Amino acid sequence: MTSTVPALGTRTAQGSALQAVLLDMDGTLVDTEGFWWDVEAEVFAALGHTLDESWRHVVVGGPMTRSAGFLIEATGADITLAELTVLLNDGFEKRIGEALPLMPGAERLLAELHTHEMPTALVTASHRRIVDRVLDVLGAHHFTLTVGGDEVPRTKPFPDPYLAAAAGLGVDPARCAVVEDTATGVAAAEAAGCQVVAVPSVAPIAPAHRRAVVTSLAEVDLAFLRGLMAGAR
Fold this sequence. Notes:
alpha/beta; 42% helix; 233 residues
């Protein structure tokens, strides 16, 4: 895929320009945050434990090591982190093999970014085996590169995944627009110095400096992202 940034309409009077768009996966492009919780509930039910609904806000958007570790500690389940990780990935892969709904506006946004040759990366806490399955639906051609949660030393909420994506694209993180749905992902993107668009999926996210909040990807297009970058200070 090309990594050329279109010249038209990208540069402001101050010289800032949108160089790349970095997109989260679960809950942002694909409607799967509920899938993860359902699989976690099923796996722990088989182990003889019931998950408390309030824990959902703790595990959403985080790396599997953190989420799985929390659930093991909270339930006291007799299972290792490595064993649980395999069961969760297996269950999730089976679930997305049955259905993988896209979030409203995702297909249009990806098509627009591709048409305008905007460098685009998929940056997720999900493992590579899951990323590759999801790409079968999203279309790998929409992404210049992808970064899985098991491919960086530290995943979200640390900045490593977004810094790796920016480095891989050869762009300045401060001139990247990130689209995220959870506070964990927003924290990672902001720690990397990126401009953030939050589309909350499970828990509310408040607006802040260098952070816009919208209700749906239907509100996000290339002009919107360029406008955010132009107004960033």
